[in-house]
Amino acid sequence: MAYGGDDVTAQLQQVVREVFEHPTARVFPVTSGTAANALALSATCPPWGSVLCHDTAHIMNSEGGATSMFGGGAVMRGVGGSGFRMDPDALQTTLDAVRWRDPHHSQPAALSFTQPSDFGTIYTCAQISGLTEVSRSAGLRAHLDGARFANALVALGCSPADMTWAAGIDVVSLGATKNGALSCEAIVSFDDRIAEELVYRTKRSGHVTSKMRFQSAQMIAYLTDDLWLRLAANSNERMAQLAAGLRDLEVAFVNEPDVNMAFVRVSDDVATALERDLWFYRIGTGVIRFVTSWQTTQADIDATLELFAAAL
Amino acid sequence: MAYGGDDVTAQLQQVVREVFEHPTARVFPVTSGTAANALALSATCPPWGSVLCHDTAHIMNSEGGATSMFGGGAVMRGVGGSGFRMDPDALQTTLDAVRWRDPHHSQPAALSFTQPSDFGTIYTCAQISGLTEVSRSAGLRAHLDGARFANALVALGCSPADMTWAAGIDVVSLGATKNGALSCEAIVSFDDRIAEELVYRTKRSGHVTSKMRFQSAQMIAYLTDDLWLRLAANSNERMAQLAAGLRDLEVAFVNEPDVNMAFVRVSDDVATALERDLWFYRIGTGVIRFVTSWQTTQADIDATLELFAAAL
Amino acid sequence: MAYGGDDVTAQLQQVVREVFEHPTARVFPVTSGTAANALALSATCPPWGSVLCHDTAHIMNSEGGATSMFGGGAVMRGVGGSGFRMDPDALQTTLDAVRWRDPHHSQPAALSFTQPSDFGTIYTCAQISGLTEVSRSAGLRAHLDGARFANALVALGCSPADMTWAAGIDVVSLGATKNGALSCEAIVSFDDRIAEELVYRTKRSGHVTSKMRFQSAQMIAYLTDDLWLRLAANSNERMAQLAAGLRDLEVAFVNEPDVNMAFVRVSDDVATALERDLWFYRIGTGVIRFVTSWQTTQADIDATLELFAAAL
Amino acid sequence: MAYGGDDVTAQLQQVVREVFEHPTARVFPVTSGTAANALALSATCPPWGSVLCHDTAHIMNSEGGATSMFGGGAVMRGVGGSGFRMDPDALQTTLDAVRWRDPHHSQPAALSFTQPSDFGTIYTCAQISGLTEVSRSAGLRAHLDGARFANALVALGCSPADMTWAAGIDVVSLGATKNGALSCEAIVSFDDRIAEELVYRTKRSGHVTSKMRFQSAQMIAYLTDDLWLRLAANSNERMAQLAAGLRDLEVAFVNEPDVNMAFVRVSDDVATALERDLWFYRIGTGVIRFVTSWQTTQADIDATLELFAAAL
In 3D, which of C108, C97, C100 has the Cα closest to residue C49? Predict the structure, then answer.
């Protein structure tokens, strides 16, 4: 059976319910994180609504306006906070300033977390709960962009349930591609109304593949026997080693590298020297980004630190 | 002839070309400022583009996401600057940070001025030119939201051409409703590509009324014999008198009241006392907004100042 | 108070409830019929839904795709039937062929009547009820495009309630412009969910005018003391006289001119001769359209018939 | 490099140019046929436009309105014709009836072929050329939905160029998934304006996967050494054998099985009997659909014919 009507996808449904300890969770495999985020939010926020997220959120800065397109003109609004995390007071201030039910003003309808943030920091479960308590009391539902979901989970040492529905999250973008899978992401919904819309929204946006079973099979393997956690643990640990080594070299960080991403401050000369042997992004002036993966080895880290020592 | 195919609308076309001193300007009467802004921008910015505007722009804060809806998911991005005006350096910084032609990032395509701003301040023609020079060199076209266009014109003492196409503006939302007319706004385009799209975009959004001739007739009268300027001059002058009187009373202003709007700081007690006899908006805590109109008389101002003196 | 927050619009709300004999009806004044139709349908049909209507429906053929734009990509599907009216059996066949809940297929969600049709024919109340019984049992809600609502009402001799909610209609586009008013149309909703959405949808599409009170005042006058019915009765009666005269001249009709529109078959020579003195539309080859109005007089009809007699 | 910035995708670009014998063709890998079709059309038809296609086109009937969603409200209009193919005269009649440049009427902007049709029939290259000559002279561009592109190519014995740009096609949905690949489809554009838009439209709809290289690698292998043609040839030949066998059994066909699909008329009893051992779709009453694939063997066909013989 094509288009997700197959047994493997049905089995994935069960696996997700077990892993997330939620009896009615629904899973929708898609092929990209942008699809997962924008479709999840389009089912959560009406066209006249707004999605609140941190000023640095991936959905606002790196998806070409996908949320507004799939959202029928819904807008995104930044909420400030240090550590690339929304601050509960800033959120409360934003919500207090809303003219509710006044159609001249986009009505906040969804809160979206980037977990981990695009700058490698994470919210604790308590921080997520704290924010969703504020937003929920104003009627918003909550979305978590988990392109690196497993990395956050491992760093927090909590369960998938703890970090999502138990902390007030209604719908999750569950990424596997960055942690080893092939074009394999999924939307996990804990809210029946969201799930009902996603049945239609995924298809008409071309995100229901005919051979979905191959995505579902990957996702089952990924979620089974803690494979996802072991892969994420490797990337987090390698980053911890890299960060420790860089600190020994007195390199400064833009972020706390909570997971597998570090943003470090280096001079242009150092960056240029490193570029001969390493692959990384330059983020504006004087900052470069390192990301470790499920494949990164101890030897990779050692070699990187040696190159760093030489370049400094 | 219905739907703008009439002689009066044809005559308006000529009047607009004369008043704006532009031989190929095109005019599209619509019935609201939100329609004028969002439709003009939808013809200027592609769905994957972004509209840059001041953080306090009306289009971003008070139109319920209309620009994103009509724009097919185009987003709006705030540019900072004092006096409720975009700052050229802030604009340049924003443009320098863009990853051009990278589809992960909304591509800036339009710069939108709110002239006067929602806080009663105006850009000089030189300020408009300075900003459009920056934006034009990055390929953006420019829109001016002129819900109170005539008030700005009178305050600047310049011609419609000076404040628009001669300063780099491609398309204007020309408001008449706030200055005496009835559901009478218009889009004025100096760019043929924008105008071509507006033929279709206005109709399919329900903004081509069958009896357009009654809007066109109003707009012709409005633009003839300086009626629009005389009406705006009255409201600006009354506000100048009110502001002078309030300064004598040592009332503080949030803005420079360049046109017919003042935002003044008063205690809650004073605001409550004034509300018995006056009608105004409270803007957050400790600020109230006064707007004078084409109908406001010297006696109205005197009475207001007396009430103020009593309340303080 | 601007934007419909005024007393006149509040009074219109009451008038509409009385005229439609519905205690919770909600009215939304807009400035065009296209706006009324497309906004009403966007609040009735989800983006993944389809609107069923007659193959000749105005919404499908003459609004530039407005329903699909405001509907976020909702599609329109034609249902056949003679007399420019949907046929219950054709509707049933269409609904029987739907693969319900299969997201590959647009899900019918709304049935839209053009009453009168663009070809001057009307549904009886029983015909409307018969069709909505079919559609309602499949879960569709029903919309009535009443650009010439009063003309149909007068022709049927029924009450507004009879022709709408009592016959299964959930939301109406109530036109007044074609029957004497100025840019004055309204959406009347009998369904709270539709009304709730319209609060936001009307504003963000630029269809909430700041001086709405002038539309509301017109609509109150229009609905009071049977003014709307008297105006419509005049146009219907004049058409009946014209049609009788044309039949005496052995002119053939495309339609039964139930209201104030006749589509008559004439040779090109006759059409050309008539065009010297009369204004009408040519509809394809060999058919011309006549419309009478609230202003048409007996003398107009006599003169038209004389011109016809001469041209034949 | 992620998101298509890799060497494999660059190589695919060259392969596509060679295979299609077009020096500036551009290829955009996506993961579903719906994405390919709707995105290609959204870059070809403006929001106020219409896409003309056969009444039975896949885009109109089986993609949940994707073309209207991505098209910003663009509509689809059916054109009749026998054999599930648009008829040139019907197309000309449709175009002649258009009120060009009248914004009340959706403006035809694209012609879309389903090749092969959803009912297993194909257009010859001359038929495609004949239709695009008609549409091109009215200013339309042309799209070909080639979910089973290779099957049509093999059946026609022509080159990819013959069936596309040389026959007036501007943009193609090139399917590989149904012919053996995994979530591997592509848009191939011969028009620079379409390609420029697709850079942004693919990303913001979530159809630019980060590991695009795995799709590109599949597509390169698919297009190399005639693999795609050999796979398609197998499915076409198996269907020819099946069809010959069924004709011997005096089974009637709805279609000419030009490629690998047959729609055959059987009684309900026969269908029920066959369902015990075979997997197929029932299409309405009395018709079942058989599809052969790149994997189907001679033995499969023999077995199927035996089951048929037994069931009849």
Answer: C108
